[in-house]
Please model this.
Amino acid sequence: EDQVTQSPEALRLQEGESSSLNCSYTVSGLRGLFWYRQDPGKGPEFLFTLYSAGEEKEKERLKATLTKKESFLHITAPKPEDSATYLCAVVDQTGANNLFFGTGTRLTVIP
Amino acid sequence: KAGVTQTPRYLIKTRGQQVTLSCSPISGHRSVSWYQQTPGQGLQFLFEYFSETQRNKGNFPGRFSGRQFSNSRSEMNVSTLELGDSALYLCASRKRWGGTYNEQFFGPGTRLTVL
Model:
């Protein structure tokens, strides 16, 4: 069965203090790894898709990377508006085609 | 382009009742998936519909069901509600089912409270 583990569960950063969130996965053939951002009371907002080891994607202060066992979401010089829960999800090659989510990292950026 | 819309946004029901939630996908998206989100279990896949046919189903009891209409809009139904069904129900749409995976875009969710 697919497993997705995100760490840490919660992270508090000072504004401008860069850090990384981790998503480690065990899947039977990775078809894609997805990062979402979720604000309280709202649906997840799509950030990135990564398909193969070595791939990197960037968007503003966020950069996602992928290896054969894990993905990192690097946050450079975060601002308070980056505070949210960041979710990692995978799709495997079984054909089920649905997203299998980790439990998320709750990020708080303090001004 | 309008995003995924879900109605109602909030719902309060009592145990034993049934409920129907509605989802309109992004224009041009033909696949709709439903997820349940709770603090304890996180986001869990319920089912996915494409071309009015259920394509995948998660590990939920038969009380949870859904359907999709010819315009790609979808509904999910929960019968005989239990306290544990209280959750945020999220709908997500994508362009197609099968083939190279394409990203899912989520709606704002329906917050269901069962008393």
Remarks:
- Chain B touches chain A through 24 residues (CB under 8 Å).
